[in-house]
Amino acid sequence: MSRTRRMTAFGAVAGLLTLVMALHLVGLALFTSGFLLKRVELSHTSECAPAASWSIPKPPKNIEHGLGEWDELIHPANGGECTLPPRYSRVVMWIIDSLRYDFIVPVPDNATWANSYIHGQMTTPARLVEAAPDSSFMCHFAADPPTTTLQRLKGLTTGSLPTFIEAGANFGGAGKVQEDNWIAQFRKLVGGSGPFAFVGDDTWATVFSGLFDSEVEWPYSSFNVEDLDTVDAGVTERMLGLLQGSEGYPKDWRLLVAHSLGVDHVGHRFGAAHPRMVPKLGQMDRLVSDVVDSIDDDTLLLVFGDHGMDATGDHGGDSELEVGAGFWAHSNKPFCAAGASKDAEDLFVRAGLSMHTQFPLVPGDQRTTRQIDLVPTLSLLLGTPVPFNNLGAVIPELLCSDMSKPDNRLLRALRINARQVRTYIGEYTKAAADLKSHEVELDLRWEAALFADAHFAKAVHEGGDIREASLDAAAAYLVYIRTALDRANSVWAQFDYVRMALGIAVLVGALGVLAVFWTTSVNGMDGTPAIAPLAKSLASSGATGGLVGGAGAAIVLATGRGVDIAVGIIAVGVAAGIVAKHLGCVAVSRNVFREYRTTTAVGVAVATVHAALFASNSLTMWEDRVVLALIALILIVRAVFGCGSHTSFLMQRIPLLSIGALLLFRAASTSRVCREEQAPYCVPSFYARPEVPDERFADNPAYALAGPGTNSVWMVGLAYIVAYFAPDALRRILRWSAAEQGVARLFLDWLVRPILLGAAAYWLADYAHGLERWDEETRTWLLHIKTICARIDLAAIVLAGIIWAFAPLCLVFKQEQVEGKTRTSVLGYSNTLGSGFLLLTSVVYSLLFLLAQPTGQVTLTLCYLAFVLFAELGDQERDSRYLDRAKNINGPQTLPPAAPTFVEIACVALGGYVAFFATGHQAVFAAIQWRTAFVGFTSVVWPFSPAFVVLNALGPLVVLPAFAVVLLSVWNIAPTRPTKEGAAQPMYTAASLLRTSSGFLVYHTLVTLSSAVFAAHFRRHLMLFKIWAPRYMLGGLTLLAADLSIVLAVGAVAHVAAKTQRTFGSVFA
Q1: CA-based angle 688:675:713, to the nearest 5?
Q2: 462 phi and psi angles, rounded to 5 deg
Q3: What residues pair up with 814 in beta bridges, in sequence order?
Q4: C-alpha distances in angstroms, 197 versus 204, 253, 958?
Q5: For position 980, what pLDDT does the model report?
Q6: Looking at CB atoms within 10 Å, which of 101, 255, 713, 881 has the fewest?
C-alpha cells in the first residue's frame, strides 16, 4: 500500500508538471510561429528569350505624358531586353568561409594598423588589382545579417534578403533553396553542355541538392572546427584537378563552386589574430595564385568570404567585423575598357548614393557593395535572366562600358535589373500586404527612372549628350533598385498577430496554473498537503476546461484556420478551467497572504524587476550585471533578517551562509564575455587576454582586451585545483548533517573527483593541442589523447549515474554499548533524502563540468557550491521561522517547516542566470560555444554534438538550478518511521516538491512571457532582431529545459524516496 501511495504521490507531481510543460510548448510554438515567420517566398521563375540584337527604341514625342507607352516599349514582353549577351562561358566561384575584408586589403610597409597574423598574408588579390585594375576588382562585401552560412548562400544565389528564423536551420541541415537562383538559371541555359562541380562545405549539398553533377560533387563536413586542413586540402586537390584538366577530371565543366573552411575553423578554434591564421591565409594565397594561372580567357574567377568574423573568431551577428567580408573578381580579359571604370564613381555621385564605407581596421574610405549585388551581376555576365526574387543591383565595375555609346552595357544592365525588381515588387504586393505602404513611393521612383531613360533614348535618336543622359538614366534605375531594397528590408518580417496573441494567452494561462499549484499544494483539497486528491481535482477541472475549449477549437477548424490555433484554444480552456475552479482556494487561503512577509516580498519584487528588464533595450543588453545586482540584494536581505533570529547560532549562521553564497557568485561573475553593445564599458575575461591590448583591433573596444578565443593556461591550471577540492567541499557541507561518511565519501572521492580531474585533463590536452610548438604528428597524438580523455570521462559519468541508482543511502549505522545495552544510532538520518539527492546533483554537475571550458569549469563550480549552500541556508531559515511560530503555539501555522519560500526559489533561479553569464554566455548567437560539440568526438555526431552545445549553454542556466531547487525541498528532511501504534506518519514531500517546482517555473515563465510580450511590442524596432528576438529565443529554450529538468529531478527524488521507504518504512503521501 505504501509503495502505491509513494508512486501515486510523485507520479501525480510529475504528471501535473508535464501538463505545464505541454502548455509551455503550445504557447511558445504558437508565439514563435507568429513572431518569427519567414518572409513570403515567391516560387516564380524569371523566364527570358534573349533577342539576337537590341537597340534603344524611339521614345514617345511627349515623354512626360507618354511614360506608360515607354514602359511598354522597353518591356521584355514586347521585345525589351531581359538579359545581356554572355561574356563568360565558365565560372569559378570560390568562397573562403569567414574571409574578412581586411584579410585581403593591401598593407603599406609603414602601416601602424596592421596585425601581422592576419594582414599582409593573403597578398595575391591586391597585387593583381594593382597590376591590372581593369581585369581585377576588389571591394568590401557587406553581408546581410544574420551572418550564418546558410543565409549567406541563399543571398549569394537568389539575391533575396535573409530571414532570422532560418538561422536555426543553419545548424540543423534544413533550408533547401526553393527560390529562383542563378545556378538553376545557368543550368537551364547550358543544358547538358558541361557538368557543374562542387567541392567543400556540405551545406551546399543540402541547399542546392540536385543542381550539381554527382560525379564532380565532393562535399565535406562543415561542423568539425577542430579540423583545420581536411576540407581545404580537398578543395585544393579537386579545384586544381578540374582547372588543370588532370586525369580523371572532366574538361568541359561549366561551373565550379568551392567552399573552403580552414580560415573559419581557425577563427572558431583560436580567434582571428592567432599564429595559426598565418599559415592558413598563406595557404589560401598560394591557391589563389595557382587558380589564376590555371584559368582561361572565358573563365570568370570570383573569390570572396560569405561573412567575416569578430575578434574572437565567431560570427552570426551584425557587427562590422562580422558582416564585412572581402570580395575579389578576376578575369584574363578586362571587365571594361581602360578608364571606363570611372563611370562607376560618377554613377553613384549622380544617384546620390555612397559607394564607400568605413572599416574599423583599415583607414580611409573603402569601396563597398552588398553581397546580393553579385546575383544580378553574375547573371548578366553569364547571359541568364536575373533570378525573380533578387533585390540586388549590378556591380558597375564588372559591367562598365563607355557611357557615351548608345549600347553601353552598364545602362542596359541596370535597366534589366530594375525591371526585374519592379516585377518582383509587383508580384510580392499581390501575395503580401507589408510593402503596400511603400507602393506610391516606389511608383514615383520608377516613373523617374522611365523619364530619364526616355530622355536617354531621345538623346540617342535626336542628338544630345549621350553620356550625361546615360548617367542620368542609370542613376535613376539604381536609385529605384536601392529604394526597393531599403523598403523591403524595413518590412521583411511579417507577424501573425492572432498566433502571437494566442501564444501569449497560453503562457499567461500556464502562469495561472502554476500559481494554483503553488497556493493549493500546501493544504490540498482536504486540509492536508496530500497530492492525490489535489491532482484529481486539478485533472477534473482541466478536463472540463479542455472540453469547453474543444468546442471553440471545432468552430475554428470549421472556419478553415490552422490546427495549431485550435490546439491553442484547447490549451487556454484547460488553463482557464484549472484557474477558475481553484480561484476561490487562492483567494481565501490565509497562507498566501501571511506568507507575504518582507523576505518573500523581496523575492516577488526581484522576479518582477527581472521580467521588466525587457521593456528597455539598454537593460536587456546589461542583463548580466542586473541579475548579479538582484541576487546580491536578495542575499543581503536574507542576511539582515537572519540577524534577527532567536538563537545566537542562527544569528551567526544565516548571515554567514548568505554572505558566503554571495561571495561565491561575485567571484564567479568576474568571468564574462561581452556583447557588442556593451562597448566600451565591458572588459571580457572568459578567454585568454592578449599580451598587448590593441584598441584598434575591433569595432567593439571591448575586444581590445578579448584576444583570440583561446583558453588561459592559468584557468586550465586553476580548473585542476577546483576539480580536486570540489568533492571535499561537498563532503564538508554534508558533515553538517553527519552524512559525509559511507557511500558519500566513496562516491565523491572515487567517482566524482576522478571525473572532474579527467574533465580538466581534457581541456589541458585541448590547450596543448592548439600550441604552435608541435609538429603535425604530435598534434595528432594530442587530438587522440583529448578525445580518449573525454570518452573515458563520459563513460565514467554514465557509470556514476548507474552506481547512484543502485547505491544505498548515505547512512552509517553505528552500534555502541550504553548501560549494558546495545544502542544503534544512524549517522546522516536527519538528511537522508537530501544527501542521497545531492550525490545525483554532483553527477549532473560533473557532466556540465566536462562540457564547460576551463574558465567555465571554475565559475560553474563556484555557482554549484553556492546552490548547495542555498539548501543549507533555507533549512536554517525554516528553523528560525519554526522557532518564531513555536513561541505562540496557539497562533496559526502558515507553512510546514519543510516548504521552501519564494525568496529561496528566486535565489536559485537568479543564480542560474549568474552561472549562465559567468560560464561565457550571452543572449547572442556569437556567444554560442560551438567547440563543445566535439567533446569526445572529432566530427559532428548526432545526437551528442547538438546535445552538448545545448547543455553547455542551458546546463548552468537551468538544468543544474532545477536540480538545486528540488534539493531545497528534501534537504535535512528526516524520514518518518513506523511506530508501535502503527504505520509511519505520512511525509508530504511530494507537496513540497510541487510547490517548489511551481515556484521555479513561475519565475522562468514570468521572464519568458515578458520577453515574448516586449519582443511583440518592439516588433518594428530597429534592434528587434539584435536584442529582443535572441532574448526571446533564449527564454523559450530555457523554459522548456526548466520543465524537462524539473520533471527529471522529481523522478530522481521519487527514486531516493523508494530507497528511504525500503530502509525505514516511510510513507509518502
Answers
A1: 10
A2: -115, 0
A3: 825
A4: 11, 7, 46
A5: 67
A6: 713
What is the DSSP code (8-state) at residue 109?
T
Best CA proximity match to 727, nearest among 737, 739, 740, 717: 740
Domain count, the chain: 4
Q: Is the pLDDT of residue 367 over 90?
A: yes
* Single-letter code of the amino acid located at 86: P
Cell numbers of 838, please? 545531492
- Do 62 and 196 belong together in one domain? no
CB-based contact 522:991 (threshold 8 Å)? yes
The answer, yes or no, to whether residue 702 has pLDDT greater than 60, is no
Average pLDDT (1032-1049) is 96
| Cα distance between residue 267 and residue 118, in whole Å | 11
**Which among 555, 537, 492 has a CA at the least distance from the CA of 40?**
492
Residue 1063 has a pLDDT of: 85
DSSP string, 789-853: HHHHHHHHHHHHHHHHHHS--S-EEEEEEETTEEEEEEETGGGHHHHHHHHHHHHHHHHHHHHS-
* Element housing 280 (H / E): helix 277-294
Going by C-beta distance under 8 Å and a sequence separation of 6 or more, which residues neighbour residue 45?
Answer: 180, 184, 388
Name the grid cell of 95: 568562397
- Name the phi and psi angles at 707, rounded to 5: 65, -170
Which element (helix H / strand E) includes 1068? Answer: strand 1067-1068
Query: How far apart (Å, rounded) are the C-alpha atoms in residues 197 and 664?
Result: 57
Q: Quote the percentage of the chain above a pLDDT of 70.
A: 89
Q: Which cell goes with 2?
A: 505504501
| 692, pLDDT greater than 60 | no
Same domain, 910 and 1053: yes
Residue 916, helix vs strand vs coil: helix
Per-residue pLDDT reduced to its tens digit, 78-104: 888 899 999 999 999 999 999 999 999
d(CA 109, CA 1065): 83
CB 545 within 8 A of CB 575: yes
pLDDT above 80: residue 490: no
Q: Looking at the structure, tell me whether residues 440 and 485 fall in a common domain.
A: yes
Same domain, 61 and 111: no
Of residues 899 and 805, more confidently modeled: 805
How far, in Å, CA of 958 to CA of 1008, rounded?
13
C-alpha 519/C-alpha 585 separation (Å) is 8
Tell me the per-residue pLDDT of 272-297, one tens digit each, with 9 for 90 and over: 888 889 999 999 999 999 999 999 99
Task: Kindly state the average pLDDT of the residues 751-767.
Answer: 94
The Cα 173–Cα 163 span in angstroms is 16
Q: Which three cell numbers stand for residue 425?
A: 515588387
- Amino acid making up residue 1035: G
- Using CB atoms within 10 Å of the CB of residue 632, give its burial: 0 to 12 exposed, 13 to 18 middle, 19+ buried: middle
One-letter amino acid of 867:
F
Residue type, 447: E
Quick one: 316 and 407 in the same domain? no
As a whole number of angstroms, the distance between CA 639 and CA 660 comes to 10
Whether residue 696 has pLDDT greater than 70: no
pLDDT at 626 over 60: yes
Residue 780 has pLDDT above 80, yes or no: yes
Distance CA 521, CA 502 (A): 28
Q: What is the pLDDT of residues 893-951, one digit of tens each?
A: 444 445 788 999 999 999 999 999 999 999 988 788 888 988 998 878 888 989 999 99
Domain extent for 253? 88-400
Specify the DSSP class assigned to residue 81. Answer: -
Query: Does an H or E element contain 913, and which?
Result: helix 902-918
pLDDT in tens, 332-349: 999 887 666 677 888 999
**Statement to judge: residues 670 and 719 lie in one domain:** no
Could you tell me if 760 and 879 lie in one domain?
no
Q: Which amino acid is at 712?
A: S
Instruction: Say how far apart CA 545 and CA 547 lie, in whole Å.
Output: 5
